[in-house]
């Protein structure tokens, strides 16, 4: 035992020196084969434990701005360790822990520490030499929620000859939440659907987006749904005419002077079979009975469409019909008997004599139309077809322009029809007499013979 101690203690100084040199050499070899170096890593900032604020009815006003922030850190470690860290750099995190803000209040701006976290399992020996930024301002505001309908914004057009139906969306509403001032700025939540000249139904899955009053996208809010299903029906379309009439008689002294309606045509959609049977839409007649003023009615269009046909997307819901009622005026004109045309008269057999020298006509209508009427411009006729000789009372037919009517009953005239005397009843005997007179006596013939010889 004593010899062993003497052996260990012998030249102990040299032995310690050798050990120190060996350790130094080991570190030198390690540094040569696995040198220590630095690298810069950059990550997007994330917020952790935001529920700690939500439970207090608070949230981060500048959440979107913070989550867009880039944080860079210079990390020192052996090269092999850094190589391994680079492989898993997506697991590196730059975070702000909101769990440390339990005492925050709405309106506070807190300068929060940013932690650059290296994932566990990659070993040790990592040192963060520097970091930028090290802090970030977190603005606290009251948390607000609001439920809003989801609108469908259609872009593009359907194919030629096709039209789109009302879009169907499921779910049709969304609850948005975020800082009160941001939520208040949201005016619409919508999804976009591009028709792309579609000729058949469109079914898509779309992401709802919030927009402010100016149409700018609103960031920094959360929604309780991430996607919605949208279907847009696409059907054949057709343009059909719209017509309407007035019925009834206005008050005495008044008349219908015109009728206008809008639209005059509508675009409808439906199956090809249904559209082939539908060419015109006749609106219900407008009743003007006893009317003294204009009559206007609004008629719901879709209630008048046949089964399987519906209004096109841009068509009005109602048609407007206006009937103009104007007070009538009266005018009297005198028609001479010679201006009355006898229809069906047989003047080869009969003579026709009107007992009246003239006929008075009372007309009613609008002032402008009555002003164009003169005695010669009105055709007055009496029908004497197949009437025998004798005295006849005949109602006159009066041809008046549109908008002018005859007041009262049709006027009548008395026409006396007499048969003409037969002329030249003895004409055959008269024609035979000259033939007898032309027979010449024999002497006359003899007297003519010399002249023939000559």
Class derived from helix and strand content? alpha+beta
| CATH architecture classification of the domain at 237-327 | Beta Complex
CATH class of the domain at 237-327: Mainly Beta
The helicity comes to 10-25%
Description:
The protein has 454 residues and is of the alpha+beta class. Among the domains are: 2-28; 237-327, YbbR-like domain (RNA Polymerase Alpha Subunit, Chain A, domain 2); 329-419, RNA Polymerase Alpha Subunit, Chain A, domain 2 (Beta Complex), CATH 2.170.120. Helix content is 19%, strand content 44%. The strands form nine sheets. Strands 2, 5, 8, 11, 12, 14 and 15 form a seven-stranded mixed sheet that branches. It has a five-stranded mixed sheet with strand order 6-4-1-3-7. The radius of gyration is 55 Å and the shape is rod-shaped. 15% of the residues are buried. Mean pLDDT is 85; it is low at 425-454.
Concise structural overview:
The chain is an alpha+beta fold.
Q: What's the helix and strand layout?
A:
Layout: H1 2-9, H2 12-33, E1 36-48, H3 51-54, E2 58-60, H4 63-67, E3 70-78, H5 79-87, E4 93-97, E5 109-113, E6 115-117, E7 127-132, E8 135-155, E9 162-164, E10 168-170, E11 173-179, H6 180-185, E12 188-194, E13 202-206, E14 209-211, E15 221-223, E16 228-232, E17 234-243, E18 246-247, E19 254-262, E20 265-270, H7 272-276, E21 280-282, E22 286-287, E23 295-300, E24 309-311, E25 318-327, E26 329-336, E27 340-343, E28 350-354, E29 358-365, H8 367-371, E30 379-383, E31 390-395, E32 397-399, E33 404-406, E34 412-419, H9 427-437, H10 442-453
Parallel strand pairs: 1-4, 8-12, 17-21, 18-22, 27-30
Antiparallel strand pairs: 1-3, 2-8, 3-7, 4-6, 5-8, 8-11, 9-17, 10-16, 11-15, 12-14, 13-16, 17-20, 19-25, 20-24, 23-25, 26-29, 28-34, 29-33, 30-32, 31-34
